[in-house]
Amino acid sequence: MFQISFLKLKKNSLSVTNKEKTAEALAKYIPMSKADILKRLQKKNVYQVEFGKAGKNISVETKNKIEKEKLAGLVFTRQAERFYPNGTFATQLIGFAQQSDESGGENTLIGKMGIEKSYNSVLTGKNGKLTYSTDRMGYILPNAKKNVTEAVDGSDIQLTIDKKIQTFLEDTMTTVNAKYKPKNMMAVVMNPKTGEILAMSQRPSFNPSTKAGLNANSAGVWQDLPVEYAYEPGSVMKIFSLASAIDSDVYNPNAYFKSGIYKVGDIPIHDHNGGVGWGSITYREGVERSSNVAFATLLNKMGTDRFEDYLTKFGFGQKTGIQLPNEASGKILYQYPVEKVTTVFGQGTTVSMMQMLQGASAIASDGKMKLPYVVSSITNPNTDETTTTKMKVTGTPISAETAKKTREELTQVVSGENGTGKLYAIPGYSVAGKTGTSQIANATTGKYMTGKNNYIFSFMGMAPADDPEIIMYVTMQQPQLSDTQTGGEAVSEVFNPVMKNSLQYLNIKPAEAKKYEQVKVKSYAGKTKEEAQKAVTAQKLSPIIIGNGKKIVQQLPQEGELMMEGQKVILLTDGDMTVPDMTNWSREDALKVSEITGVPFTFKGTGYVTKQSAAAGTVLNQETNMQIELLEPESVDAFNQNKDETDREKVKKDTNIQENQGVGDLLNG
Questions:
Q1: Residue 69 exposed, middle or buried by CB count within 10 Å (0-12, 13-18, 19+)
Q2: What is the DSSP string of 538-597?
Q3: pLDDT tens figures, 98-139
Q4: Active-site residue identified among 155, 205, 235, 502
Q5: Which of 198, 241, 411, 572 could disulfide-link 189, Cβ–Cβ 3.0 to 4.6 Å?
Q6: Helix axes 633-654, 487-505, angle to 10 degrees
Q7: With contact defined as beta carbons under 8 Å apart, do 557 and 563 qualify?
Q8: Where are the residues of the annotated region Disordered (predicted)?
């Protein structure tokens, strides 16, 4: 690239001889009018005329055209320029460099963000120099001695980014961004075995070649969000809470707890269905349903000091040390009792995406936590010496056995009957992961924002679950959702295609479809409610208790019938009959309740239950007018999101917490 200027020395061959002609000709090639050019050329007592941005970044082709005009006094100065041939491609990670005037007037290429900024001194070479004697007109004297100082090239940097996976990600992000128009969106694909970042992207972004989209008013464009942005992670944080509980030996997936509400002093912590809960359920089901109460009770078993120690081991509250500028450290909000409880399910405490990925690498790879890194190697072209980045284990927060058990439990979030992550299932591959719906504090008031769209929706998943080759983490802040769209749906439109394409591209073969065994139902009549629950669970079936009695008197299906693993067994007690929470149940399962109680149900629609006229826990008898509304699978998630929104408003009325204390409504999906 070239920069142009005009010398105005008087009485020598380097002066501008015809200003009118020069201005008219030059206006055809640079973005400046003839009048403005002429105005500059007519300045008096000026040694050299500069044209600012209009005279910079002149291509070779344009330079040749200008030279054909034979304009006296014209000088071209060669300048360095960085090219970004891929356009919007890991833009904030790579960053960009541009010409900057140093104090001596010399132009220098300076990195402004990302790799360009943090490795500016490595990438920058040294200009060569040629000195010789000239006459006063600038002509080289005959037989003048020339002194040459050779130029020194800057080093070459090889990134860990996989071009194919990055392309998958960029194309998908562009499509989803246009559809949902979120305030911001981040996504990173990492190899958990090494810590290598295979793809990293965000929206908003810009084209470093044209600078389209890059301006001072574009919020987020000037930040490398996965590195620099600290946010509340929501229920994705439960990945680390679960791992800590398993490692502490306080997590029994088949043990029961009472869902709904957990109190910290006088402050109630609610499950995300308005504190109704799902009755007495197993901790595994609590993980599947993303129960805040489940994790609050696990924290109580662990102890808050012990959990804080795990948070530190996982690297929260401190920078990872990734090779990029302005990394956020986040903050563990852990002073008051309620803050300790909300931290266990991702509220109040802030994190960076790099911290989350670093911590997740321990769960994906035998408990060994890896430092995320983006520079694979640096080569000095002058010496051919190459320095390769080595994998760095940053800690072992959990055991290999704990890592394996955590993945097994997280697989149920995606594939389990009650899993909140069903949207993220990848056909042919087992995915372990966790969903998140976190609140956003208003920067002005400090209070949490309200409204269907005002959340950060997220999912972190790893696959294949038994031995993960890839971790992918996607967050989406404030997408513009229609009445039938959900935040989870929007996030899945990024995660699913990129994860699937990446696994196939890496030649990771799909696993054989899991074969579910048939189970012969035993008799549970006469057993206590607790005994029956344990017996049904032991057969890998799902127990549903109807009534408030102590003993089981009837069951469906009957003894000896065959069922597939995971199906529901309806157990009727000897007390008053009560209504179960049938949300997301199939019509067939709801009919079992009608059959065993003898109370007729009226159904509207097809698919899965989204609404029931009698609330869970209501006494059920022949006078009950039970109406059930069903929706097809693609509509269920939209309903649940709207239902949670109503529940959140109810919770706010029940709590006496100042919202600006970082607690809000204590709900995360």
A1: middle
A2: HTT-EEEEESS-SBEEEEESPTT-EEETT-EEEEEESS--B----TT-BHHHHHHHHHHH
A3: 877 554 445 678 998 999 999 999 998 887 676 766 666 556
A4: 235
A5: 198
A6: 130
A7: yes
A8: 633-669
Most confidently predicted of 392-401, 582-591, 639-648: 392-401
The CATH class of the 518-565+567-654 domain is: alpha beta
Helix/strand/coil (H/E/C) assignment for every residue in 394-446: EECCCCHHHHHHHHHHHHHHHHCCCCCCHHHCECCECCEEEEEEEECECCCCC
- The confidence score (pLDDT) of residue 601 equals 93
Closest C-alpha to 351, from 362, 360, 364: 360
Helix ranges (H only) for 201-303 are 225-228, 238-247, 283-288, 292-302
pLDDT digit string (tens) for 171-186? 999 999 999 999 999 9
CB neighbourhood size of 458 (10 A): 31
DSSP class of residue 618? -
CA 178 to chain centre: 18
1-79: what fold?
Answer: Alpha-Beta Plaits (3.30.70)
Peptide bond preceding 464 in cis form (omega within 30 of 0): yes
- Rounded distance between C-alpha atoms, residue 311 and residue 241, angstroms: 9
Active site residue 244: no
pTM over 0.85: no
Within a 13 Å sphere around the CA of 574, how many CA atoms are in the beta-carbon half?
Answer: 10
Break the chain into its structural domains and give their ranges: 1-79, 163-512, 518-565+567-654
For 500-551, write each residue's pLDDT tens digit: 999 999 999 887 656 678 899 999 999 999 999 999 999 999 999 999 999 9
What CA–CA distance (Å, rounded) separates 172 from 361?
24
Q: Report d(CA 35, CA 20) in Å as an integer.
A: 9
Give domain 163-512's CATH superfamily: DD-peptidase/beta-lactamase superfamily (3.40.710.10)
Round to whole Å and give the CA distance between 381 and 157.
11
